[in-house]
Each structure stands twice: as C-alpha cells, then as structure tokens.
Amino acid sequence: MSDRGLGWVNWLPTLVLAGIVLAAWQAAIWLGDLPPILLPSPRAVLIAGWESRLELLRGAWVTGAAAVSGFFASLVIGTLVAAVMSQSKMLRLAMYPYVILLQTVPIVAIAPLLVIWSGYEFRTVVLVTLIISLFPIINSVTEGLLSIPADRFDLFRLYGASRWEVLFQLRVPSAVSNLMLGAKTSAGLAVIGAIVAEFFVGNGGANYSGLGTLMTGWQTLGRTAPLMAALCVSTLLGVIMFVSVQIVSTTILRRWMDTD
Amino acid sequence: MMRSQERTAWRPVILKRTTRLRWTRQATASIFTHEEKPVLETAPAAIRCRGVTVRFGDDSEVLRGIDCRFPPGEIVSLIGASGCGKTTLLRVIAGLLPATAGEIDISPAARPNRGELAFVFQQPTLLPWRTAIDNVALSIRLTDSGASTAEVRVRAADELAAMELPREAFERFPRELSGGMKMRVSLARALVTRPRVLLLDEPFAALDEMSRGALGDLLLRRWDSRPFTAVLVTHNIAEAVLLSHQIFVMAGGRIGIGITDDLPRPRDESVRGLSEFGKMYVRVSTELRRLAGEAASPRLSGAGEGDDRAAATESQIAQMGVRAAVGNARDDGSDGE
Q: What is the ipTM, given to two decimal places?
C-alpha cells in the first residue's frame, strides 16, 4: 500500500498512540493518587493552558520570533561560512575545528556568559539560537558544496568557468538539497536554543516574556499544570518550525531532483 | 584503404598541464598549441597525438605512447574493450586529464573556453535545476560572455530544434525528460557553441536501440550541415561502422591502425543493410582480436598476466560482437523518447 495520497489515514496511528499515552497518564493519576504538583492530569493541564492562554500566546510569539530570527541568521551565516570553507582546503583545515566547537560547547554553560556580554535582551536569545543552530547548516552546506558529481565539475572545467561561475552556477545550486537537510535539523534546535536562552534572560527581571521565562517563573511558584502547558506549546512551536521547513524543502527540492 | 599509423620519431614531451581547475579563460586556452594562420571561425581541427602516455601510480600504465592523427572534419571512432584506455585518451585530448608524457596538438587551436572543443559525457550530465533550454544556454553563457539573453535563448532554442526535441519540452526540467530526450539536450549543449572538435564518450551507451539509432542519425545530419572533427568512444562496432570515417581500435593502452570506413555518404540506418557494412564489421572485429592478442602477449604485458588478460579481452570482444549483432537484429526497441 502506498503511503502517498492517504491524507489523514497516515496520521491515524500517531493519533491512536497519543490517545493511549493520555489514557495511561490519566490512569496513573487515578491509580497512584499522585499530587497535582507532581503530575497534574491532562485535563488540569488543558484548563491551566486555557486560563494562561494570553501569556502562553505572547510567550510563543516572543520565543517563536527569537527562534525564527536565530534560524534565519544561521541559514545566512552558515551558508556564507560554508561557501568560504569550500574555496580552499587550507581554509577548511583552519576553520573546521572552530565549527566543531560550536557543536560541542554546552549551550547551557555558554548562555550565562552571553547574557553578561549581551544583556537580558531579545538579541541574546537570538544569539544563543544562532549558535545552537549554526553547526548543522555549516556541516551540510559544506558537504553539498564539495560533493559535486565529477562529470558536472568536468563540464565547467572544460568551458574554463571562473571560480565564481563554478560557485554560483554549480556548487551553490548543488548544495541546496544539503542546505534543506541542515535546515530541518536546525529548525528544531532553534526552538530549544531560544527556550534555554530565555531561562537565563528571564532571570534578569527584564521586560521579557518568552516561553522559557514563563516556565522558570511557574516552576518557582510550583505551578506544574501551566508549566506543562507551556511545555506543550513550546513543543508545538518546534513542530511548526520543522513542518514549515519540510514544506519549503519539498517544494524547492522537487526542482532539484537528480535524474542522471 | 588502410591508413597506416604514424609511428614517427616524435620526441615525447612532458605536458605541463595540471589537474587543478584553470580559473582564467586564457589559462585554459593556453594548453593547446596555436597556429597563427587565420582560419574560419568554425573550421574543424586536426588532432595529433604524439607519444601520449598516462600512468596512474608507478606501475599502472593506462596509455602507452599513443601516436595517431585524427584528420579535420572527420568522425573518428575509438573502439575497444573496457579498460583499454579509450576514455582516458578522450579526456587527455579534452584537457581534463594530464598526460604523463607526450603531446596533443589540435590545429587550428580549439579553445574549450570559447566552446571550440566540446565534450559529451556518457551520462547526459544535465543540471537538474535548469530547464532543457537553460542547460543548453549554459554552454553559451560560459563561453560567450558578450551574448545577450535574447540571443542566448534563440541560439539554444535553434539547437534544440535541430536536435528534434519537441518544443513543449524546451522548458521542462531534466527529471521530466526521457533518457533519449536528455541525451538530445546534452548533444545540443555541446553543439550549440559550434565546436571545431566534438568529443563523445559513449554517449548512446545507456539508450535503447531505437533512440541510439535516432541520435546517431541526428549526429550525422548535424555533421553534414556543419562538419566538425568528432572523436567517438564506443563499445559498439556497428555504431562505429555506421558513423565513422575512420575507426581506431584500442587494446591494452595501445592504439591500432586507423581503418578507413568508406561506406557511402550521406549515411543513415539503411547502410546497415549493405554487404560492405558487414565486411567492415568483420574487419574491425578482426583488428580488435589481433590487437587484443598483441597487447596481451607476455612481451608487452609482463609474463604471467598474458593468458588471463587475453582471455578477459577475448571475452569482452565477443560480448561487443553479440551486443552489436543483437542491436542489428532488433527492430522492436522500446521507446526511449
């Protein structure tokens, strides 16, 4: 049976699984007699989410804006860095260890430092988001820029194409599928980066109200139900980011499909 | 008429080509020797190979002192079993691979960066993000920076029409084209710059018999309307006999004598029915066996390897004969268009 063209039928197993998880959650509360501060019921989370809907919507807007800004910044900067790295082996050797550092440095450890340097501001959240989502873009795009099929490269060599012609007419279009692959990974990471940064930015008491800030506040007050509602909203935000990139990716890559 | 191979005492010269991409247009042009006398803009060029040797590593000699001359305005086929060095020689002529020793002389100079030397790869090698017409336009853009956008499109469209690609396919992406259509676009991309020299590396190998025949006919018609020097690498004896003026047989990194193919012109698929076609087929096949045996002899290839190599080459030649024979007999080829 083909997976294509079935629409909602493809989502049925996912929805069934979600129903099972919710039922198990509710059953655990009834049978285990768990206090709401430890694990509120799904219904309590839903009610808390509705009651805090304005705060959650505003938080989602702020966090989403930071995540999208950081994500787009990582697309631009990552592509530029990859383009530079593709031009010479020496540059790659010089820059690659620092690119790996972006991936290995614990973002939770560097976020407080960035807050000190950049302040309790929206831009700090964007900066953290940029750092966390940059590596997949650089890595994927560099690979795409360098893995040109030999015949296509020979075609450009034969016609004596300039370095720029090779870059813009061959390497960059060839790397689009890799860029989309990196973007899908980065899209999910961007929301994580924004929320982690907001844990620290929110501590400053500044006029900042992202989902991460709300979560730390409700955690301090012991309000587990709205905390879990914020968790659901932030997860939804990540899914929206990922699906948006997936749709753009599918649309663009339809043109890039290889056929030789 | 047999044309003897020129085994003159050319002194091998190490070519100062590099494998790196030559970024300036002038640099790419300079790898070919120039003649000062004025020539017609698109006059076909003669290609002379003198002692061309290619080694990969210390002991792997792919080409062994190739000496040959491909006359201007002729279609020349290089035929031989897999691994005999045909494609390597073609890539050396194109400047895509440096020779370890020897010299290639193309006269009048065929500057690839002006589109005077074009290459058709085994795969269509189309850029999937460009439409058919934009793929053809690419070679004009890369070789003629002065051409206006309108001029580029008109030239590309004319060449695609000459390749008998349906007009509605001009704006299609490669993924929307059949194998035969893609190869028509690939040929158009090579021919649109009016090359003096056209190098073809088994361009029809992946096509069904009908598409192969149709594209061979098209190539002949394009040559009839505007002659160029073509070097065609093929495994298919029948294809070589049908298309060529001369057929050079290769085996074990060596090249044999140029066999003049004097079947009547203009040619089309009907030539296959002539008795001369069969005779030429047998002659090429015999020369292949002779050269393969010579190349596999212990004196040339090293004791111990000879029998294995001879057996392997013999088997490949037999397969080439079978493939070609099947091709001749088939008239129900699936439509590759």
A: 0.75
